[in-house]
Design goal:
By secondary structure, the chain is mainly α. Helices cover 66% and strands 1% of the residues. Helix 13 packs antiparallel against helix 14, helix 13 packs parallel to helix 17 and helix 14 packs parallel to helix 16. Keywords: Membrane, Transmembrane, Transmembrane helix.
Length: 745
């Protein structure tokens, strides 16, 4: 057949030779660079033989030669055009129009071809990033770091090394934020090439050409990534740009000059979150870049739509790097950091507190590292970041340290009162932000709707505060009385901690509470003042320890003011105050406060005269079957009634009401066994209940006896070796005996 049909033989031979040549060229290309995605067994064998060491220098020299040749040809063409331009201007208009039309057609055709290729690459990039995101959500973070042998990384590097078309080159560069680009890749020529493309995007006026902003953005991204990666890996002591006399600041300036956070769209700003961390990891960043980074975070987190977990994680990660959190390079190159959101959020909270607490209250410009200045700048948005990631961090118990930072800021603001009003306003704004951070770190909501259910800021150290430690808060409150938002924050602090004041400040503190409880104040403001009074109820009750002036003010002004906070004002409607009459949590706070005051007989005439007892009577029907409320209602009424038997407030109470309120109180007894302030009342409650036991039904008595057995068991177990509970145990036993005897009879 070969002799009979030589044409077919030549075709087959030509195909085989072409295939062999193509395979050989592929093997040689793959042996030159291990990042070529078309690796074959032959290329692997050539690499093992070391052929790449021979071919690589030749290929690199040839590549540089052709690039230089292209630049030279371009320069010659430009000069030729410059020479011909005067003559061109003399050409007739029809000829110029024809040439322009032809050149425009060629330009559009090339642009369409380039755009199609670029879109294809971007489509592959999106498919690649989706697959990478799926893997990240399923794998351990340590397994998320791709090695230099990954297909995506090798393909991108290969395209960047061989491509001469800027459009294709930039399309390949757009892959970089979508894959985990290792910082240890050997990329000696890529930065120079990208820099040349970036320079071509800048016009004669030094500004980036509007039509080339997308290309400039991609170039800035890859320049920042590769440059800072090389600095981190190989040149930690240098800040020059890949060996040229081009300083760090210029690269940063170019990389951010086309982004305006205040007007930029969210999609345009999101890529910056993956670029900006590289500007901070070396520790050499200008102040304007810090402000730019803060503006980017603020813009992204304040968008009308809720940011994604990935955006939140990127913002928190950037903030972490800004305040000095140390990360491994595998964390820096993570594409989707939402998988490590709990770790970065906890790291940000801990480091932010450390940085602020280390501040001595002095000039921020004296901070050589810039970390404290950055933390100060982040005060505006730290709460927003933590609130969005609230489920990913544990509440802080460093409240006193955070409040000490607030005190330092207040002292610094005080020093500006006369000399620098602008600095004073800046520090007062920072102080408010620092207070908000204190609440957010402790997971204490500032929402008035959650006021009564708030946890304490730092309950485990309630008794560790020295007198005078909170004096500055009273001074601060008096200075901003006109700002109800700040006033509410201060009252929230005072109501969330067991505060203690110096004798000189106690009088001013009580005056502050009285003023805040006024009927002209907003409802949430009065409630916050009531909660603050509740936290110091034992101190307010001990009027014998006060001087005459303070005692008189407490008895004559504070007592009626307390009732004002819970008693509806004349003309109040449900629309004005949804809880205008009864509110479960508010009324419990009020009853606990009045119970503490009723333990001191000096308070009894004032509680009666200011109509607190009348208000308590009005609550009986509402709360008689609610154990906490019934316990404190019984405690208030039983402690005052024996001394005021002729008062009409008690005459109106029926025996059944007395029995109901005391019956409900016993259901709360098991919760007060460990509280010595409340335990002693059980004896009084037992004595009072014996007076009305004759009206009890048989079922009520049986249930009472059963419950007394449970209470006695708990009391004897708790106080079996201590004398303080013996009297209570005896009183409860006696009540049980009376109830049991009545059942037998």
């Amino acid at each position: 057949m070969w002799y009979e049909r030589p044409s077919i033989a030549w075709v087959i031979i030509a195909i085989m030779v072409s295939g062999f040549l193509f395979y050989s060229l592929t093997a040689v290309a793959c042996s030159i660079t291990s990042y070529c995605p078309f690796q074959t067994p032959a290329s692997t064998a050539l690499q093992m033989l070391g052929i790449d060491k021979v071919l690589s220098p030749i290929f690199e020299s040839s590549s540089r030669y052709f690039r230089q040749l292209k630049k030279s040809a371009y320069a010659v063409l430009q000069r030729g055009l410059g020479t011909l331009r005067p003559g061109w201007n003399q050409l007739s208009k029809p000829l110029r129009s024809a040439v322009c039309a032809a050149s425009e057609f060629a330009r559009r055709s090339l642009k369409s071809l380039s755009t199609a290729l670029q879109k294809g690459l971007r489509y592959l990039a999106s498919r690649s990033s989706t697959n990478a995101g799926d893997l990240e959500s399923q794998q351990d973070p340590d397994a998320l770091v791709k090695s230099t042998s990954d297909v995506e990384t090798r393909s991108i590097k290969w395209l960047l090394e061989i491509s001469t078309d800027p459009e294709i080159y930039i399309a390949a560069a757009c892959f970089i934020p979508q894959v985990k680009w290792p910082l240890d890749l050997d990329v000696p020529d890529i930065p120079q090439h990208v820099s040349d493309i970036f320079t071509g995007c800048i016009g004669f006026d030094g500004q980036i050409l509007p039509s080339l902003k997308e290309r400039a953005s991609a170039c800035a991204m890859i320049l920042s990534h590769l440059y800072y990666g090389r600095v981190l890996e190989a040149y930690p002591g240098h800040s020059n740009f890949f060996g040229r006399e081009r300083q760090n600041g210029n690269v940063l300036s170019e990389s951010v000059s086309f982004f305006i956070p205040d007007t930029g769209s969210i999609p345009a700003l999101e890529p910056l979150l993956r670029v900006l961390p590289y500007h901070f990891v070396t520790g050499r960043v200008e102040e304007y870049v810090e402000k730019f980074a803060i503006a980017v975070i603020s813009k992204l987190l304040s968008s009308p739509s809720s940011p994604s977990n990935q955006t939140i994680a990127d913002c928190i990660f950037l903030a972490c790097v800004m305040v000095g959190v140390q990360f491994d390079k595998k964390d820096i190159i993570l594409t989707d950091k939402s998988a490590v959101l709990p770790q970065v959020t906890q790291s940000l909270l801990a480091q932010f507190q450390r940085v602020l607490c280390a501040w001595d209250g002095g000039d921020l410009d004296k901070d050589s590292t810039g970390i404290t200045r950055r933390a100060w700048g982040l005060l505006d948005i730290i709460c927003r970041m933590l609130e969005l990631a609230q489920s990913h961090y544990n509440r802080s118990f460093n409240t006193m340290r955070n409040l000490d930072v607030c005190r330092k800021i207040y002292s610094r603001a005080n020093s500006y009162k006369q000399n620098d009003p602008a600095a004073l306003q800046n520090d007062l704004a920072a102080l408010q932000n620092a207070l908000h951070f204190t609440f957010t770190a402790a997971k204490v909501s500032r929402d008035p709707d959650y006021l009564w259910n708030q946890r304490y800021l730092n309950s485990e150290t309630d008794d560790s505060h020295s007198p005078g430690e909170f004096d500055w808060l009273v001074d601060y409150f008096e200075g901003i009385y006109y700002d109800q938002e700040v006033g509410f924050d201060i009252l929230l602090v005072l109501g969330s901690m067991k505060v203690r004041f110096s004798p000189a400040q106690q009088h001013r503190f009580i005056e502050t509470l009285v003023a805040c409880m006024g009927s002209n104040k907003p409802v949430h403001f009065r409630y916050a003042a009531l909660r603050a009074a509740h936290t110091v109820r034992e101190e307010i009750a001990s009027i014998n320890d006060m001087d005459a002036g303070l005692r008189d003010m407490v008895l004559t002004k504070l007592s009626p003011a307390i009732l004002t906070t819970v008693c509806p004002r004349p003309g109040t409607t449900l629309a004005d105050d949804p809880h205008y009459f009864f509110d479960f949590d508010r009324d419990l706070c009020y009853l606990e406060l009045i119970y503490a005051l009723a333990k001191d007989s000096n308070w009894h005439p004032h509680l009666l005269g200011d109509h607190h007892i009348d208000w308590c009577n009005s609550m009986i029907e509402e709360y008689r079957m609610h154990p906490p409320h019934a316990f404190y209602l019984a405690g208030i009424l039983i402690q005052i009634a024996p001394e005021q038997s002729s008062v009409t407030s008690f005459d109106a109470m029926t025996e059944q009401q007395w029995w109901d309120i005391m019956w409900g109180a016993w259901y709360h007894a098991e919760f007060v066994i460990d509280d010595t302030h409340l335990l002693e009342f059980l004896s009084v409650l037992a004595e009072g209940m014996k007076r009305y036991i004759q009206i009890a039904s048989e079922d009520s008595l049986r249930e009472l006896v059963r419950y007394m057995d449970e209470i006695l068991e708990a009391l004897e177990e708790r106080y079996s070796e201590q004398g303080e509970g013996v009297g209570v145990i005896d009183a409860v036993k006696e009540l049980r005996t009376v109830a049991s005897d009545k059942l037998v009879w």
